Amino acid sequence: MSVHSYSDRPRVVPLRQKLAEINWTLVAMITLIACAGFAMLYSAAGGSFSPWADRQMARFFVGFFILVAVACVDLRVWMGLAYPAYVFSLLLLVAVEVAGRVGLGAQRWIEFGPLALQPSELMKIALVLALARYLHGLEPGQISRPFRLLVPVVMIAAPVVLVLMQPNLGTATLLALCGALLLFLAGLSWYWIAPTAGAIAVAIPMVWEFALHDYQKARVMTFLNPDTDALGAGWNITQAKIAIGSGGIIGKGFLMGTQSRLNFLPEKETDFIFTMIGEEFGFLGTMALLALFVTVIYYGIGIAMRSRSQFGRLLAMGITVNFFLYIMINGLMVMGLIPVVGIPMPLISYGGTAMMTVMFGFGLLMSAHVHRRIEVPRHSSGMI
Amino acid sequence: MALEGKHKSRYAGFSRRTLLLSGGMTAVFGVLAARLYQLQILDGDRYLTEAEENRISLRLLAPQRGRILDRFGVPLANSRRNYRVLLIPEQTRRGVGPALDALGQVIALDDRTRARVLKEAGGNKPFMPIVVAENLSWDDFARLNLDLPYLPGVQPDVGETRGYPYTEELSHVLGYVAAVSPEDKAKNDSGDPLLDLPGFRIGKRGVEKTFDKEIRGQAGANRVEVNAYGRVIRELEREPGHSGEDVYLTIDQELQSFLYDRLKDESAGAAVMDVETGDLLALVSTPGFDPNAFNVGVTLAQWKALTENDHKPLINKPLAGFYPPGSTFKTVTALGALDAGVITPDTVFNCSGQFTLGAHAFHCWKKGGHGSINLRQGLKVSCDCFFYQVALKLGIDGLQAAARRLGLGAPTGIEIPGERAGFIPDRAWKQKTFKEPWQLGETLVAGIGQGYILATPLQLCVLAARIAGGKKVSPSLVHSLGAEKRPRAPVEPLDFSDDSLEAVRQAMIAVANEPGGTAYGWRITDPAFAMAGKTGTAQVRVISAEERASGIRSNESLPWKLRDHGIFIAFAPTDKPRYACAVLIEHGGLNAHPQVQLARDALLLAQKRDILGRPPAYPVNSADASL
Q: B327 an active-site residue?
């Protein structure tokens, strides 16, 4: 009975208290990681704040306030915004397909006046929100019923297909994996999981044959044997491995990386920035960074575990898993363990949209933390 | 309560799954850490080496090729600046074809160049620069440097190119330099890295080839740090290398040019030599070719013109052309017979116009005959019958031995490649080749320098020099490499008696100074410069009995190819010989005796210029100079 008394009426928490509730340790660690990124961007420019480090710092500054602002907004507001945000992102993805301009050989950007927006980045957040909301509304076990399952599968599949058409294999993979892991966390029966995993294993050769673009196949082939084309498509992988490996245990020192300074590293300020850390700070540097990442992820898991609402739990885990997938794909890619796909290292790689979405995501994570005690009814449509 | 339970079970399920996922994530981080451990700690040293190889590039510095100078220091081959443009395939952003298109906007590129560069780009390693164009004008070169930021992979370069100011005149002596062929690379025993340098030239002929290693010099190198585009960031270390040695020839450019100019429309070979040392003052082959063209690369049309010319410009005639020496060989027959004691200067033979041996008649060139004459008379008028009889007395064994002692039948050992040995027959060769014994008639024919005997103009010059100076000289045309004199074996006296030599010399003086001598009409009238000599013609056709009966056709009336070769050997001055000379003009045996006129003028020029009396410009130290 007492259960109902506080779940019927939203508990309004003063802003000051919300600010105090924010996990500042986590914010500090995020800032620390971002600072490592600034340092590497400073080094990548040959010891200069322009053109990358200064702009990245400004973005982080903005992102910082976004994080705090998002954290202070009630979780139920986000729940109410989940579906509209998803639909909006999906429409943008369609728009990019229709009207987007060609950037880097793939349609990934859409222009809002002076702002170039990547709808696929927005979708990473929107998909987590929408899935969390849908799964929040299900009874335990309902998720494994075919018609209940069909909805989230379509919700995942629609953006994945659109992103694949751009074509952007990296982001599509990330969206698909993130969605699948949320279904897993929501309690999807092993009777679904096992056959699906088997089917995917069977489907991979067919996808290779019929669905992949030539450049995507080339990336895979080059990845499998980079030395055969060491000066063409294999260049990225070969040079990235040389950069990381040549750092040794303690690295060549800040601003002393020859691979980056002499431009042997392709896209060193974006996707391949981790190799610079490896080159200039060595094994100690890369391990320190991985330790920071791991800590942030465990904080995220902790927030999810302490959240009272299923929405908060799934939202927190969705953001955390998303962050983890970024790190995993980028890390495996620059170390030559998977093919080169365009996924940046979160908080570190230079890039505006990615920084904003990551900080927005952390804002949602923090909102789940700040509002962890809030009980959200299964059929509530949020506060809007 | 039921709701609470559901909550609890949902939470428990979520926790379980989250725990599982955390395990999975931890495993992934473990993989990342393990991979980093492998890359940075296990293989760190290897990757560090690779990073260093990436960044440090060893660039060869081509040494300056040494000059070739004549005895008075006149440069005959030198090096001048060559503005050129290179293309490094791996540094082009969109491949070689588009890079050439872009380059074609700046400088003119024809289809032939395009095809060549594309072919080379296909066969070479992608980081080896390819020479696209050479000898650019300064304007083109400056424009290219201006547009460089828009031409990735294009590299302007200041090289050097070989120049031969006297073009055809010295072409066969100097040879030429040209691009390194795959065969050259295969033969590169010393492993000289210069041969892999783009556009590097090596000596392919003549002095350029023989002394290529010395003239080439030693490669320097600089270790530079380069960025990914190959741009040099800074120099780390420099080893300058050594320039090639200058080569001093014994040739006198002025005499050489004089001879070439007079012979340039003929197919001819000529040589002028110091009778004391064997130093060549001129070595001429006409027509020549332009060695500068080979340096740049001859066009197909140029090559066809050179190979299809019936005057054969690519054959070095004084060394590689071999001809029957004709009557000039009578000096050998005379010397051999005198030295063997089978005749004396006073021995007299009769000439009735023909000499009969068995059933065979051997004709003298003079139909009515010369009557009874001695050696001096016989050589002066070049009587065939006289020398048939001398040869018969001497025999083929004595004759061939004398010829060999005078330097015939074997290469002279001159420094430049391509020399032929000529040919002196003997009994053993005849038996082996024809399975027949030597015939007496063949001795007669050999005695007047016809039949099997073949000699090069250079050998005939050596013959003249040995008779004139009485020394066993061998020809040489390279005096010193850098500051070092080329070692030469000391010149030994010729193993013929002084009396025999003097008798032949006197007869040769008569040829060119006494009325009735075959060269009297073209003598040097100033007694201080007077020359001695011996004329010769070599038939290139068979004269039939009918023609002999009705009168032999004059050379002037015959087509060029059927005319006799005109030969003249000479020395001067007569009292104390210093210069020897041989001139051979193919199909030039005309009544005007152009070969005699030329030898006369050359010997006169040499003496008036006092080539051997003037101090040469050789950079040898005084101790060597006194030798």
A: yes
